[in-house]
Design goal:
The protein is mainly beta. The chain has one helix and eleven strands.
């Protein structure tokens, strides 16, 4: 078992992290991983080969987690008026020591995004499927695209029964 009382990602606090790690036959297996703080709740599991390439697959489940502080750790130019709280699953796989060979896939089950005065959220009861996220160009960690399936857009207060739905592709960063 392993435990970290106060883990940080760059300058952003993650909080307490605990897990069960097993090393067998040159493979690190993360049997259980839990991270919790006021901003996040994450559980995970996976495996990493103890080789120079560190081939691996890690799967994380997050619930009502504030993503924007951790995005800013890598993209400080992200507007301070942008917030993102989401629940879903993140899968990271490939050669983990070579960022150009790392792949990531995410499925967002629920999300509330605040972009200046606009609030975007997947509409309960109308969403046909979760929102998948993927990197179009594995060599560019900033090239994230979002395929949006039925997202409601709310600007200020919207009278009951007035919904706006749409589909499309959004580039999160240029």
């Amino acid at each position: 078992r392993a435990r970290i009382s106060d883990l940080f990602l760059r300058d952003e606090g993650i909080g307490q992290v605990s897990g069960r790690l097993i090393v067998r036959d040159e493979v690190l297996t993360i049997d259980q991983l839990e991270a919790a703080s006021a901003r996040l709740a994450i559980s995970g599991r996976g495996r990493v080969a103890l080789t120079p390439e560190a081939d691996g697959e890690l799967i994380f489940r997050f619930q009502d987690t504030s993503l924007d502080p951790y995005l800013r750790a890598f993209r400080p130019q992200l507007s301070p008026f942008t917030t993102a709280v989401a629940s879903g699953t993140l899968r990271v796989f490939g050669e983990l020591r070579n960022v150009e060979r790392v792949r990531a896939e995410a499925v967002i089950d629920q999300a509330v995004l605040n972009l200046f005065d606009y609030v975007l959220r997947n509409v309960r009861g109308h969403a046909e499927e979760p929102v998948p996220l993927g990197r179009d160009d594995p060599g560019d960690m900033g090239a994230v695209s979002v395929v949006v399936h039925r997202v409601g857009v709310v600007v200020g207060e919207v009278p009951a029964g007035d919904d706006l739905a749409g589909e499309g592709r959004v580039s999160v960063v240029d």
